[in-house]
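Translate sequence into structure tokens.
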Amino acid sequence: MEAPRQSSPDRARVGFALGIGAYGMWGLLPIYFKLLVGVPAVAIVAHRIVWSLLVLGILLSVTRAWGEVKAALRHPGTVRLLLASSLLIGANWLIYVYAVNSGHILAGSLGYYLNPLANILLGRFVLGEPLTRQQWVAVAIAGVGVSILAAGALSHLWISLALCASFALYGLLRKVAHVDASAGLGIETALLFVPALAWLAWASGGTMPVWGLDRTDTVLLVLSGVASTIPLLLFTGAARRLPYSTLGILQFIAPTLQFLVAVFLYGEAFTTAHAAAFACIWTAALLYLSSALKGSAAKAEPIPD
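Result follows.
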């Protein structure tokens, strides 16, 4: 029996909650990876992929979603989109773990500050989502803030740009792919599983600490599957329910938390440029969110009993 379809307001509320959960968890993820600072970034990502597949297999079994996986696999176009999105998220994970454990959380934060701008512009120019004048002003102010940050982090700007491009395109592909969040993520992870497992098997015979430096590291590596899967599931669920430009605003949550973690927990430098950029970006976020909420209120209609 098919589950009843959510009404538009309920769908938006659920999507909003899922988005806040996803970006909040991503914002605090550097703390987790800093506990694995002695493990190579490639090893951490390989473990994330291998153990994520186990977690997703259990989830798909519990929710009886294997039928959705089979349905998606019957469509070559969907499989091609998921292959591309799997490569993008794998690259994103690798670059981000490298940034965190090499002491460049602020560069990672800049990348995810850039992402909302990319999402807003992709929503406008690829998906045809309209923007109001106030929203365009917000984009311009955020662009000024990002430019200030970019000028102050030029030596590691490649990290920021690579994170921005990989995740913005990942989100776009997942929005247009006709597959449920958990089923799509399961297929993506399965596509990356064999190379990840092969790399772990090969590297385990060498001198790299691919299983960590002690038992605590090993446990954290195994649990990285859960730490990786939950926010991605929340994100893909949100991406299916919300306008892509709204996701662009919610995404300011993650880099702000990363920014605070970098400065106040790990002591990365907080310059005048950072302060100015931070002010610009949050001004833009408030402007855009205000405009989006006005638009939602204007469109809202009573739901019949």
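Note: Residues 272-299 form the longest helix (28 residues).
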